[in-house]
Amino acid sequence: MTANHKFFFLMGGVLALLMLATAIGAILKVRATNEGALATIDNLNARTRAWWVMVFILAIAFVLGPIATLVMFALISYFALREFITLTPTRPSDHVSLSIAFFILIPVQYWLIGSRWYGLFSIFIPVYGFLLLPTMSCLGQDVENFLERCAKIQWGVVIAIYCISHAPALMLLDIPGFEGQNALLMFYLLLVVQMSDVMQYVFGKLFGKTKVAPVVSPSKTVEGLVGGGLAATAIGTAMWWITPFTPLQAAGMSFVIVVMGFLGGLVLSAVKRSLGAKDWGSMIEGHGGALDRMDSVSFAAPIFFHLVRYFLT
Amino acid sequence: MRLIVTPRVLIGCVRFLVGATPRYVNSEPVTRQAIYFANHSSHMDTIALWSALPSAQRAQTRPVAAKDYWGKPGLRNVIARNALNAVLVERATKSAGASIIRPLTEALKQGSSLIIFPEGTRRAERLPGPFKGGLHLLARMFPDVELVPVYLENLHRSLPKGFLMPVPMICTVRFGAPLPRIEGEAREDFLNRARQAVIDLS
Predict the structure, then answer these.
(1) Helix-strand-coil percent breakdown of chain B, rounded to 5?
(2) Cα distance from A290 to chain B (closest Cα, Å)?
């Protein structure tokens, strides 16, 4: 099967799933009896509507080719970093370093993927960005909370740019026998991460009783985690045919993606709460901000990238 | 440049950089002629507030802008005249007197709504400083025009004093309910009440 065939099968499956979710949402809404249930169902339907939009954008980017995909991820990093910086207390002396983060680090990081320069891609932000940003902040001659300010900016840059950029970076791996199909690997990652989030939400709503981390993320439950995680791993295993993996490898990879995605959601929820917010933003109806949707990707993408790079190239 | 800097382009840029999403705090968008007054902390304030208005209101709203900054030839002037249709005024000085307010009264007479920053100058802080008397004068001359308080969040962080380029930062534009008129209220009391209405939105 060619990459295009696989893509159309994949898209067909995703669209069928979205139609199913939309239909279930409509039925639940008619049947809802009390206020609380109605609010939950409205949120569920808002999430499903947002999924239609997100899948549409992703499909357009794929059809337009690798450059469009990189531009799309650069914009995701941009909006995610904007949300992070909005909640971070910065001072006027950070202005130059913030400008560099948004207008230089983001374009350069994605340009490095596009130009297939793996060496610089992997150290550009951890080395050059890490040293440049505090240098620019310190030239502002303002030492109040200097370390805290620098650390928070660094953290935002690493999560929103560096970590997220590892998803499209899958395109620069040379996997023998899988030439020209790398975009599918990126889809696979996004599919498993997002299905894991969706399934954890669904299982949590249906069977959730025991909270995993009540302080950090009150909506996560053990039942949701186990049920959703297993379901997502099963989906990832069943999708082995779009990847270069054997079914067993696909199961292992999915499991790692699910675990990392869960940890990403947990850690970023703790960060968000320590910055005094419940949602990162309000850009995506029902979900919150861009970073609420990308939190699990930011942890899963780098690990998935390096596992594939180590074992398959 | 005139062809590029259209209202649509300007609004696109503002949304991309600072979002400028409107939020109506215990209120609805005002459809009648209005004077929007807000805290002033950056050069982005005017464009952000203007972008956040519903398009029907935006079409009839003219920001009031200082001639010495927005009137300079170049990009600023094109933005002010072409896209914003701003009312350019001299800055208030002791010698200028009441005549500087004339372009404002004329715009109001023609039925336009206005955006003004009653502090008169930018402040680097979250909350507005004391209001100058212009708002009081206009409120007395035009008793039927609604006075809408607006609070602009985060813009002083996006574009601090002394920098040219804004940094991306989500800014919410909070509109409050129109200020009720109180018969025979002293000038100072009115100005304090107006300032408090903006602070209450923060």
Answers:
(1) 40, 20, 45
(2) 12
Q: What are phi and psi of B163, to 5 degrees?
A: -115, 155
- The ipTM estimated for the assembled molecules is 0.90
Q: How far is A186 from chain B (nearest CA, A)?
A: 26
> Which chain A residues contact residue B169 at CB under 8 A?
82, 85-86
Residue A83 is encoded by which pair of tokens? 């949300």
For A203-220, what is the mean pLDDT?
89
How close are the terminal C-alpha atoms of chain A, in Å? 21
Q: How far is CA A227 from CA A34, A81, A234, B196, in A?
A: 27, 32, 11, 52
Three-state secondary structure along B164-200? CCCCCCCEEEEECCCCCCCCCCCHHHHHHHHHHHHHH
Q: Predicted confidence band at A218 (pLDDT cuts at 50, 70, 90)?
A: confident
Contact B170 A81 (CB under 8 A): no
The residue with tokens 């007395």 is B140
Question: Who's near A111: CB < 8 A, 6+ residues apart?
Answer: none
Residue A140, classed as helix, strand or coil, is coil
pLDDT tens-digit readout, A231-246: 999 999 999 999 999 9
What is the rounded CA–CA span in Å between residue B61 and residue B29?
Answer: 13
pLDDT tens profile A144-156? 999 999 999 999 9
